[in-house]
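Instructor's aside before we start: the two examples that follow are unrelated to each other. I chose them only because their records fit on one page, so don't look for a connection. First example below.
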Amino acid sequence: MLSKRSLLAGAGAVGATLALLLSGCSDVGTEAAEHDHGTHEHEPTSQPADGATAHNDGDATFARDMIPHHEQAIVMSDIVLAKQGIDPRVTELAEQIKAAQGPEIATMTQWLTQWGAAQASGHEGHDMGGDHAAMGMMTDEHLEQLRRAQGADASKQFLTGMIAHHEGA
């Protein structure tokens, strides 16, 4: 099972990767350095001997907040993956984000179920305002701009949006 610390570390690693990729997007004449973006190993979460997972209200709030956050990262990735002319490094990153965050959503949903806690609301990438805006969530307007963008502009908007998205996590 993933711990909050592992999820936050993963978000930080994605943010650092995005920053490196974004810096390479504007320099067309220079090849970017090779980076290993392999999967991150997550340390197991310890559980009490009776098999029940120790948790508190903060854990449930964290999971409920992170589920729509991860869902929007997948929406953003789907938008850029549906486009032509996107830098292959950007499409590779979008694929990695989808591959990592889908299972994390399932894990956090399972936590909430095991804890008998309320599930996250299923806004899936929609403008959520309030606390979610402070978490780096894109507004509906920004998502629409990403949908309309093409080529290098779409790559840049995706990377810029994803950096803000993960800095807010």
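Example two begins here.
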Amino acid sequence: MKPASTREVVAIPIKHRRYEGSDWQYRVCGTVIFCDKIPDNKAPTLHFRADVSNVKVETCSKQACIPTFEPDAIMNRNSPLHWSFSIGTWYHTNVRVSWFFLLLVPLLCIKLQSFPIGLAITGVLFLTILCHEFGHVAAARATGGAGDEILIWPLGGLAFVQPGGTYAAQFWTAAAGPLVNALLCLVTLPAVLEHDVYLEGALNPFVLPPIVLGNMWITEILILIFDINFLVLLLNLIPVYPLDGGRMTQAVISARIGGEMGRHVYGRIGFFCALLLLLGGLIAESVWLTAVAAIILALNIQETMQLQGGEAYDESFMGYDFSQGYTSLEREEEDAPPQEQRAGPLTRWKQKREEDRARKEVERDQEAEVELDRLLEKVHQHGMESLSATERRQLEKASKRIRSRSKDDD
């Protein structure tokens, strides 16, 4: 395959884990590309993924030289959440299993007082999570994105995917996992309907069906597949972070009112839904539902705080800036030698919050510039009438943000 002709492209930096030793990652025309670390102020040569590995983009626009940010902590291989081992590469995807997932076997066997049933539930749960995450990977690739790794751990799975560059791509990438679970439920539903004794347990997400793995063990395995997939489906339809329902909700809201405002609205929805889920678990006296709801609520509180930390706000009170201790107060002893003191927990927290806010501000400015470049290029090629109503709003919003930023810099 011959290299593409020399041309300028807009490469959008994306959040994604490092891939095969590459230090920089970009998206060009909906395809994820990678390149090695480059010197400052020099444009890189960008290489496409392995499926079109010989295609190169010889030049890039200035925006392409923006590096990606570090992956989230949950994607960091040094994190305890990523302690895992690989079980192979399937469908061009590295599948890893958390060491903590193996603890489910003895825990379930002790809880259910049956080794065969505990082993069967663990096996069905593993296959359910695997199919669910492969749904995300397939959808991400189908929408012009990428996915190259799956991590299976006790509370579900993590698909390291990057959907295409549209809100529709983000929605369908998130929706693909629950759709796989719904399909498996439809396939195994006849086995449930044929045996009324299992029907109530299979449709109740709070209890397991009364299986014994006797002479009808094949039917009971099918019923178990239905029950676990039904549970995973219901759980992932809840519109909270970080479940698929939350990602779908975020994509829909962001497509209507914009990405920045959509993140804030989605954060509030997720927080209140997680709180209701926790109250429901307490009322139903369900230990597992309460535990899952508590984890989800904690994650949503963290997400809400991060969103609030990205906003501009006034930390002063009556003219005194307490975010910097008492440095805004006039000192009577200016000649006193400075004393080196270790910053307290509150000061360190505020400093970290300031850094996160500044980082998010830079990230949003970069996204606005890239979006503005894309829309202006479309207007240049096809005229203003080629823009949809949503794109017109995005163009106006990005322009206002960049003009506002320029005034602040002046």
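Residues 179 and 405 are 42 Å apart (CA to CA).
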